[in-house]
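User: Sequence in, structure out. Go.
Assistant: Echoing your sequence, followed by the structure tokens.
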Amino acid sequence: MPSRKSGRDHGPAQATPNDGRRVTRRLRPKRLALLAAAAVALAGAIAGVTATGLAAGSASSGAPTAAGPRSSSPAAAKPAKAQPGRPHSSSDAPRTSCRSVAHIGDSTSVDLTSPAFIPDAAQRLGARYAAVGVQHVKIDASGGRSIVEELPGQVNGYKVASAWRSNGYRGCWVFALGTNDTANIAAGSSIGMMARIDQMMAVAHGQPVMWVNTRTLLSSGPWANANEQKWDKTLVRALAKYPNMRIFNWSAVARPGWFLPDGIHYNSVGCAMRARAIADALARAFPRSGQSTSKIVR
């Protein structure tokens, strides 16, 4: 999901068709200017973080995102009346057949590993995956990330997944991407939504994949929720192409009170709820025994 998105289409946007060949396109300078302007209007530059090879159950090593224009810092965000759920007991925890998980995301995944947003390590994403039976976790999250475009010094989602696959990773995948891709497309990228989804699914090579769909509270601009809904509908269409794919319908779960004032990122309670919800959804999408009853879980 979102990050405090800053200038988005820097450098080439690489799409990979189903046959594996890369198609390289650059956005026109006018489109680049639109992307940069949209990013500045929404927020300043974000600091991303990468946490790879986490031992499931250990505290994630992600650093906090730069506060920048997220108008509320974690400390300033109003706490919800109900505290986020504690880790499941062994008797009530849903369990997944996924023993290894590779999670690739944007700034809203960065925050799920951040002590600044989730002080209790047991509530962060790595520990939540461990609670549903995942034994090995790889997390790579970066502010402003999309599948195609790259910020200066950043690696896009496709390249991260490709590198892990080339280095021998085999297991389940969780893709928490799309919010920034949607904004880039709205600002003029010629690489469409399905092409981006196809790119990530090609890397998975038929292994289990769960996509986390997207939502914002914005009514206008590149990150408007109307644009995010187009992405979510494209994910649903992709289910017919990929039997190994499931969708976690986060859009139907997220509550307005979990968002920061920017309408994209989440406060501390929202981050804790999101971390737990993603892990629990994985256990429903790919349960320890049997099969998921639906390709869309919530």
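User: And one key feature?
Assistant: The mean pLDDT is 79.
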